[in-house]
Specification:
2 domains, six-stranded antiparallel sheet, elongated, 17 helices, seven-stranded antiparallel sheet, alpha+beta, Rossmann fold
Length: 468
């Protein structure tokens, strides 16, 4: 059961004659799965930039009144889950920086591993920071660039930044879509009614009636203004798309690297059935992220598929703290079993991953209490032994259960009758793309950028506090 949080979602649109703030709202609604802590939209009309954002879900943050004040023909939007910088109102994105003709708004998905170093350098050069987010560091670095046009200044920043960043950025008269030279986080590009859009995932384009054209390439800057679109390139360092986009993060109806996510997850389940067969009565996938993989396992093994657990999709999406009695229910807040379907069954349970190992034992126990006779866990991801520093809020290495326990020890810990992880080779066969396309550092420790293994996601916030 993946306890990682879904990074962030970014969107951008340049479309004269359209209500771009409203379209951005619906695009962010489609990207809500990528972050539920805060949402924001910035618009530009050729003369000025306007901004509105708040803590909460997209539907909680925006109403007709808020959208009516966001005028213009250019917009960017952001859904946030904190990776660098805590979940506080000062870190809501987009962020607006600069003044006069040097004003920009920026929305960021990813994580900059050298942000603390750059922050201190920029402070020494006289920059004042108002957030504890690495997004502001990116914006300040762009503004600090030697005189030149916006593309030149963005290129200057890209040469200094280390880590993951898919950005939508607007000035008063242009939109920019920017992807880091490793391509760690996804970003796509499309068209809409004579205008142009960019988004973390293609599902956002589908929701507003836009047409997907292609991925923004690693190291690419796309500028969109009254003259149309123009592409600029920085050298690709090493392709390193996060493999968890395919395993868990992306919506199953999104297309990434030319592949629809849903059948890829089905292929993962089928591969698990080949690598870890077992004689059972029924197969289920833990909803929602492993449903497609569960179906794939069932089809490959010839065993029937059952839902088994129903998911409450609104757990964790309220600001009302549970009292102790409700908190003690734990995983039952998220899942409710169907005992009439489960009693006496020998069951394969397919899940996306095991991180800390705190949730999976509760799922196994929930199924056993519902009468399941045997629980055989099958995991789409290989054992996660190393933390992520590129936009996923993952545990430190000492918290990762696979970093210090064998598969058999993990099986005993979670209380399953058997446990089978996907092999890395099997995962690569499932996604049908070369291994060097992806970042698989959480499995192998082979990071595309040098990192400190005990980096703290609040390191930049601590530096910000010291300077304040």
């Amino acid at each position: 059961m993946l306890n990682l949080h879904e990074k962030c979602g970014v969107f951008g649109i340049y479309c004269p004659g359209e209500d771009v703030a409203r379209l951005t709202f619906f695009a962010l609604f489609a990207l809500q799965h990528r972050g539920q802590e805060s949402a924001g939209i910035a618009t530009a009309d050729g003369k000025r930039i306007q901004l509105y954002g708040d803590m909460g879900l997209v539907s909680q943050v925006f109403d007709e009144g808020a959208l009516s004040h966001l005028t213009g023909h250019i917009a960017i939007g952001h859904n946030r889950y904190s990776t660098t910088g805590s979940s506080r109102s000062i870190n809501i994105q987009p962020i607006v920086l600069g003044s006069g003709d040097d004003t920009l708004a920026i929305a960021h998905n990813g994580n900059i591993v050298n942000a603390s170093h750059l922050y201190k350098e920029l402070c020494d050069r006289g920059f004042t920071f108002h957030t504890s987010s690495d997004t502001e560091v990116i914006g300040a670095l762009i503004l600090s660039a030697p005189a030149g046009d916006w593309v030149g200044r963005i290129k200057y920043a890209m040469r200094r930044l280390q880590g993951a960043y898919s950005l939508t950025l607007l000035t008063k008269d242009a939109l920019y879509a920017i992807r880091d030279p490793w391509g760690v986080r996804p970003l796509c590009f499309g068209s809409l009614n004579g205008g142009w859009v960019a988004a973390s995932e293609s599902c956002a384009l589908d929701h507003i009636g836009a047409t997907l054209i292609r991925e923004v390439e690693p190291g690419e800057i796309i500028r969109i203004d009254q003259n149309g679109t123009e592409s600029f390139r920085e050298p690709i360092r090493r392709r390193a798309l996060c493999i968890f986009e395919f395993i868990y993060f992306a919506r199953p109806d999104s297309i990434i690297n030319g592949q629809l996510i849903y059948p890829t997850r089905q292929a993962m389940g089928a591969r698990l059935a080949i690598e870890h067969p077992v004689d059972v009565d029924v197969v289920m996938g833990v909803p929602d992220s492993a449903t497609a993989a569960g179906l794939g396992y069932a089809q490959q093994s010839g065993k029937p598929f059952s839902e088994g657990l129903l998911k409450n999709r609104y757990v964790g999406r309220t600001f009302i703290a549970p009292d102790q009695r409700i908190r003690d229910l734990g995983v039952k807040l998220k899942f409710n079993p169907l005992p009439q379907l489960l009693k006496g069954q020998r069951m394969v349970v397919v899940d996306d991953s095991i991180v800390r190992g705190t949730t999976t034992p509760k799922v196994v126990n929930l199924l056993r209490r519902a009468g399941v006779k045997e629980v055989h866990m099958r995991i789409c991801a290989p054992p996660i032994r190393y933390p992520c520093f590129f936009g996923v809020d993952m545990a430190t290495r000492r918290e990762l259960i696979a970093a210090h326990k064998s598969v058999e020890e993990i099986r005993k810990f979670i209380g399953a009758d058997s446990l089978g992880y996907m092999s890395l080779d099997g995962l690569m066969q499932s996604v049908k793309l070369p291994r060097d396309t992806f970042c698989t550092a959480c499995f192998t420790g082979d990071y595309p950028v040098p990192v400190q293994l005990e980096m703290d996601k609040l390191a930049l916030e601590n530096a910000f506090t010291e300077r304040s």
